[in-house]
Specification:
11-stranded antiparallel sheet; about 50% strand
Amino acid sequence: MNTLRVVFAFGLIMTAGPAASDRNGALDGQTILARMEHANARRAEALAGYHVTRRYSVFEPGHPADAELVVGMDFEAPSTKTFRTIETHGVGWIERRVFRGLIAAETETAAGHKHHDSDVTAANYEPTLVGTEQRDGRDYYLVALQPKRADKYLFRGRVWIDKEDFGIARIEGEPARSPSFWIVRAPFVRDYQRIDGFWLPLQDETHTDVRFAGEYVLRIQYVDYQITHRA
């Protein structure tokens, strides 16, 4: 199950601040993605860093968690992430091979070229607008994304992009390429929350179908953000 780590090596979207609004009615997918990229670049300039507490858990559907890990994570712009273990529970090999693998992969991706290789950008995806939707009192563009290459750091699926500030509020999809012979399917959902104008992760959930072993769920929850703005 250490191969679960690749599922979360993309989509690390940390954005903030205002962006161009939809002034001309309907937009196409390419235009929406371009505005999102422009907004992300502007908003990233306002983010100095943040601290967040994460709770990782692995469990079979309908059963208590086999293992849990709670960590504090500090992000320093533009790409430095450090982790501190707060507590662990459950099966030791899951903590060592799954949780630590996730953290190592994320640290490597944030700091290296894989960060750009996994971003939701026109360089990595072909976008198609499929509709609009209202969630929690906000209006979103619903955009289907087709990866431009079969890369384990990319996904095929759809994203919800806020109409007001072009931040990503939700991602649903599957890896563009299976990360391992042992992983049959790995559909995931990532939800973001808007804090002080920043769209930051709220919860990740991946339902992984492991060959010969069945289904396991990997869930990551994010709480207690402390955000630092640039002076």
